[in-house]
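step=encode ok
step=design start
structure_in=
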């Protein structure tokens, strides 16, 4: 596999073409942003942890029947993935109240929901990723009704699998964001990453935050938190 030109540079990853038209290489950076890019920083070693963690979790999901973009881990920071066109939706699953949910509805963090919730935001930095009603996804032609139904089904299955796995690791999966993409033949698969950048992970005993909220909220111990969840994942891998 030969790495070719850079296709795209995002906030936390770079994407490169390869000699295979159906494959990309993603390269994970230590750069961190929050609040739609307003807060910037670096988290030393984050790229390595996010690359390895995302790959380990995607492998698990594949084994459970969820199609993902994962092909092969190439190095500490680089992974070969299937080329997709990203569906411009941020798919957020919540098991407990936190973050923008708590803010929007004026409730404390940590309320355990009877059922997980799925919500969609429009992946659009210029508009700061506004929340979407499902009818608006069709109106804006971001995805078809069938695609939205499939994405919702996959998102809930991911939640079930990852909630159980993180529980074994002594971690509560509070909420997370997924992105899906479409391959050349139109198949919808899970793409992007699953990491402490995109999940809220709380220690199951103490409730200590082991994710990007430590960076967003200046709680300190950011690198240690990422290393701790990675250690727990490896111990239960
Ligand atoms: N999230 C993300 N990228 C975003 C927005 C949210 O990865 O652009 C993740 C976030 O880390 C959390 C979940 O999605 O695990 C729910 O985030 P929320 O809507 O509460 O927004 P936030 O409080 O992070 O602004």
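sequence_out=
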């Amino acid at each position: 596999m030969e790495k070719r030109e850079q296709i795209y540079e995002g906030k936390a990853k770079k994407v490169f073409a390869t000699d295979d038209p159906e494959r990309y290489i993603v390269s994970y950076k230590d750069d961190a942003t929050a609040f739609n890019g307003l807060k910037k920083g670096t988290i030393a070693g984050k790229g390595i942890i996010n690359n390895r963690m995302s790959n380990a979790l995607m492998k698990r999901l594949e084994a459970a029947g969820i199609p993902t973009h994962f092909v092969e881990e190439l190095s500490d920071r680089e992974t070969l993935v299937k080329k997709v066109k990203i569906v411009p939706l941020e798919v957020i699953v919540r098991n407990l109240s936190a973050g923008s949910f708590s803010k929007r509805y004026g409730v404390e963090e940590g309320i355990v929901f009877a059922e997980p919730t799925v919500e969609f935001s429009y992946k659009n930095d210029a508009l700061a990723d506004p929340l979407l009603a499902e009818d608006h996804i069709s109106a804006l032609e971001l995805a078809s009704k069938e695609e939205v139904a499939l994405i919702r089904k996959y998102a809930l299955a991911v939640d079930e699998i990852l909630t159980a796995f993180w529980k074994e690791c002594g971690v509560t999966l509070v909420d997370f964001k997924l992105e899906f993409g479409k391959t050349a033949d139109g198949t919808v698969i899970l793409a992007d990453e699953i990491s402490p950048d995109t999940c809220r992970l709380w220690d199951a005993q103490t409730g200590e935050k082991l994710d990007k909220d430590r960076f967003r909220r200046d709680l300190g111990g950011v690198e240690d938190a990422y290393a701790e969840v990675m250690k727990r994942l490896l111990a239960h891998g």
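step=design ok
step=annotate ok -> The chain has a mean pLDDT of 98.
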